[in-house]
Specification:
Structural class: alpha/beta
CATH architecture of the largest domain: 3-Layer(aba) Sandwich
Strand order of the largest sheet: 3-4-2-5-6-1-7
CATH topology of the largest domain: Rossmann fold
Largest sheet: 7 strands, parallel
């Protein structure tokens, strides 16, 4: 006797969303489209599967669901099957669909379906509704023209297209906003995320043509021993013994992270896009079975991956993408009977850029004015570095106990100088005086002075980069300023200690 699969019962907020969306959907004229926003973990797949079921029952037409990841397609097929909807996944193995009447719905990988439709624009028949999962992804747009006189329902956690030239409001006429993250946490449907931020100097990161920090500059920064050490220390403080996901920007960084954790004896695996399907499945299966497993990857687990037992998310990278920020953190937000909170460890100043994950966002404003968010409406790390002094590590601070610990913020000094009609050079002079005094007051002789001089090297570079930002200087000019600054300070220390030797 065949087992009867009972469909999952919708939570009250999901049932309300389904009713709201479906009522608006059936009133839309042909070729009008609707977008629905709901946080990661809120059950978008369950919601749009129920909408598909109601649409099929009401109009007796087929529903096409588009996705861009194999895992998402399989998840959707399972949910549709539980809801009693016959379905077919269109993947690379499906070359023809000779008996389409057997199916009420299709789940298609966008690239595969695009190839089939280019060969035969009648490849798929009698579609009355197209549902787009992860609708912020621009790859779907290229096949919309094959489906005329149908409605399109897009679903996403972040209604913000990454392409400034292709805003979502050009495709979707209106947006329905679902429950907020904070409400879902209060109602017990999502875990409370506790964010722990570690200061990281991101001044070496570069921005590419796509508006995102480049992988190359990420690799140079995050593969450094000092960053690997900071990551290990953060793990031992906040993640040790817990199932942990680490997101990196580049493969070299992720492999370095793997080696760093492996050398410490921690259970860790690395995963990236070069892995075969078999290797990927084996790695994810290991992670699921390993209670305290650590999985370091390169952003490929931001969608289509669901492991509710993840308790710690490490953002071992910086991003300018609000969507990616939410996707990464969302991997840890699933609720279990013995899991009500999870840790978010930010090593890329991301929470300063976007605010905390659960912070309320006006998604309607994001939808109608995406340029404001793509152009860094949120506080950027450059802004942070301009209004804060360099934070010396505790072990270095202990070497300067005989001098003032007052912050020296270049931007404030610069604004004060300009208001008084002084030349910008006075800021550098004041900074030199500050560094000279701190070294002089804590060194017993020239040799120790040079040791302290070297310990302040990063702070000197930080200040010169702040100064360069204030006067809009080129990178080459800033480098010259750093060298000149160091030379002047070294010479002044040499003269001082030569004159004051016993």
């Amino acid at each position: 006797m065949q087992e009867i699969i009972e469909p999952k019962k919708l939570y009250p907020f999901q049932d309300q969303a389904v009713t709201n969306i479906f009522n608006q959907l059936i009133e839309l004229p042909l070729n009008a489209n609707l977008l629905f926003q709901l946080p990661t973990g809120g059950g978008k797949t369950i919601i749009f599967s129920e909408i598909a079921k109601r649409f099929i029952e009401k109009f007796n037409r087929k529903v096409l669901i588009l996705t861009h990841r194999i895992e998402l397609g399989k998840q959707t097929s399972n949910v549709l099957t539980e809801a009693g909807i016959t379905n077919k996944i269109i993947n690379s193995e499906v070359k023809q669909l000779p008996q389409q009447s057997h199916y009420q719905s299709f789940i298609a990988l966008v690239e595969t379906l695009n190839n089939r439709l280019q060969d035969n624009d009648q490849f798929i028949e009698d579609i009355g509704l197209v549902i787009v999962d992860e609708a912020h992804n621009n790859s779907f747009r290229k096949i919309f023209h094959y489906f005329k006189d149908v409605n399109i329902l897009g679903v996403t956690a972040t209604p913000l297209s990454s392409n400034k030239k292709l805003p979502l409001y050009q495709t979707y006429q209106s947006l329905i906003v679902g429950e907020s993250i904070s409400n879902l946490i209060t109602q017990g449907y999502l875990c409370e995320g506790q964010t722990f931020s570690y200061d990281v100097n991101l001044s070496s990161l570069r921005v590419g043509n796509n508006g995102e920090f480049t992988v190359g500059s990420h690799e140079q920064l995050y593969s450094q021993v000092i960053m690997q050490s900071k990551l290990i220390d953060a793990y031992e403080e906040l993640g040790k013994g817990k199932k942990t996901l680490i997101f990196n920007a580049g493969i070299l960084t992720s492999r370095s992270v793997y080696e760093a954790f492996k050398s410490k004896g921690y259970p860790v695996r690395h995963l990236d896009s070069t892995f075969s399907d078999k290797e990927r499945v084996e790695t994810l299966e290991w992670f699921r079975k390993t209670k305290d497993g650590i999985l370091t990857s390169v952003s490929i687990l931001t969608t289509g991956f669901d492991e509710p037992e993840v308790e710690v998310i490490f953002l071992n990278r910086a991003t300018k993408s609000l969507t990616l920020y939410h996707q990464m953190i969302g991997r840890g937000s699933r609720v279990l009977p013995n899991k009500k909170t999870f840790n978010i460890v930010d090593l890329g100043n991301n929470s300063r850029r976007f605010n905390l994950w659960q912070y309320p966002i006006d998604w309607n404003h994001v939808f109608t004015s995406p340029h404001m968010y793509l152009e860094q409406r949120y506080k950027d790390e450059w802004d942070y570095e301009l209004v804060n002094d360099y934070d010396l590590p505790p072990e270095i601070k202990e070497r300067f106990l005989n001098s003032s610990a007052a912050a020296f913020i270049v931007r404030e000094k610069f604004l004060m100088a300009t208001r008084k009609g002084k030349k910008p050079q006075v800021v550098i002079d004041e900074s030199l005086e500050d560094h000279f005094g701190r070294i002089k007051d804590n060194a017993s002789g020239f040799d120790e002075a040079m040791e302290l001089f070297n310990l302040l090297g990063e702070e000197m570079k930080y200040r010169m980069k702040q100064f360069g930002r204030c006067i809009n200087s080129t990178a080459n000019h800033t480098d010259w300023q750093c060298q000149t600054y160091a030379s002047k300070l070294r010479r002044r220390l040499l003269i001082y200690f030569a004159e004051n030797e016993d």
